[in-house]
Amino acid sequence: MTMPSVQEPQRIKATTPRTSVWPVVLGVLSILGGYQAMRLFETGSPGSLVFLVRRFSQGGLDAVLRIFPLWSMFFIGLSALAAGLGIVGGVLLLRRRRAGVVLLWLYALSMAAAVVLFVTGLARSLAGQGPITMPRYYYNLFVNAGLGLAYPVLVIVWLSRRSVRRHARGWRTREGRMKSRPPGPIWHGVVGTLALYWGAKKVLVSLLVLAGTFVPVRSGEDPWLSFLGAWEHLVFGSASLALGVLSIAWGVLLRRRKRAGVILCWVYVAGGALFAFASLIPGLLELLPRWTISLELTLNVALALGDRFLNLLIWPAFLLVWFTRPKVRAHVRSWRRGAPPVAAEVPS
After folding, report:
1. Same domain, yes or no, for 194 and 259?
2. Are residue 55 and residue 105 in the same domain, yes or no?
3. What distance in Å separates the CA atoms of residue 314 and residue 312, rounded to the nearest whole number?
C-alpha cells in the first residue's frame, strides 16, 4: 500500500512593492548639504561674499585675483554648482523622481572635485611659503576638507548599492512612486535617522576639535600649554560632544518608538538652544572693541556670527515646532498604550 504523496506548498514570491524612508532622509540631507556647500570652509559665507563683491566693484577681476588665487575662484564656482545640484536633487528625491538620483550623483562628484581642488591648491600655496609657522591653522583647514568630503562619499556609496538602484527603478511611473511610499506614519524613522546622522557628525567634529587643542598655535610651542590656552575650544568642544552623544541616544530610542526618546529630545532642544546662544559670546567679545575701527570688518564678523548662530539653532527650532504639533503628540501618546499608531502628517 503506497502512501499518497504530499506536495510541498509552492513558495509564492512576494509582490509587495519595496518601500523605504531613505529618499526622505537623503533628500533632506542633500538639501542641507547643498546649503553647506555654499559655506564650505567659510569661503561662501556671507561675510566673504560681501568682501568678494566689494573688491570686484572697486578694481575688477585683477583686484580679486590679488586676494583670491585662480584655483580658489574655480573652487567657489564648483561649490556654487554643488549647492544648486544638492538642493534641486534633494527636492526631486523627496518627490521620488529618478532625476533626483542623477543630480545627487553630479552633486557628489562636483563636491568631491571642489574638495580635491581646495586641498591641492592649498598645498601648492603652502609649499611656496616655506616652513609652517601656524600648525593649528593648517590643521583646521585640512580637517574641514575631510569633513567636506564625508557626505559626498556617503552619497556615492549609498546610491551605488544594488537595493537602492532597484528601488529607484520603480519610480518610472506615478503608480510605482506611490507604491514605494511606506504605509502609515514614518516621521519617527526620518527624524530619528537625522538625529543619528547629525549626532555622529557632531561627535566626530568635537573629537577633532578637542584633538586640535594639542596642535600648537605656533611652531615650537609646548603642546600642553597650547592645550591649556585653548579654553574656548575645550569648553565648546566638550559641550558639542555631549550634545552629539545625546542626539545619538534619542535618535535610537525614537526609531524604536520609545517615549524616552522624545523626553531626551526635549533635553537636546534645550541644550542645543543654550549652546547656540553661548557660541555668540566669544565672537561678541571680539567684535565690540573693534566696531569703531572698520565698518567692513564689523559687518563681516557680524554676518559670520549670525550665520553660525542660525546653523546651530535651526535644528533645535525645527524639533521644537515638530514635537508640539497635536498630531505628533497624539502619535507619541499611542506608543505608551500600545495602541495602533495615530496617523500623522509627514514629509513624503
Report:
1. yes
2. yes
3. 6
Structural contact between residues 301 and 48, judged by C-beta atoms closer than 8 angstroms: no
Domain match, 170 and 95 both: yes
| Residue 327 belongs to a domain | yes
Query: Could you tell me the mean pLDDT of each successive run of 10 residues in the chain, 348 residues long?
Result: 46 45 88 72 47 62 64 78 89 90 93 83 66 64 78 92 88 78 80 91 86 66 54 81 94 92 94 87 66 60 70 88 91 72 42
Q: For residue 78, which phi and psi values (nearest 5 degrees)?
A: -65, -35
pTM of model > 0.85:
no
Cβ–Cβ under 8 Å, residues 44 and 86: no
How many angstroms separate the CA atoms of 237 and 212, rounded? 10
Provide the residue range defining the domain that includes 247. Answer: 185-335
In terms of domains, do 287 and 203 share one?
A: yes
For the CA atoms of 195, 264, 322, 255, what is the dihedral angle to 10 degrees? 50
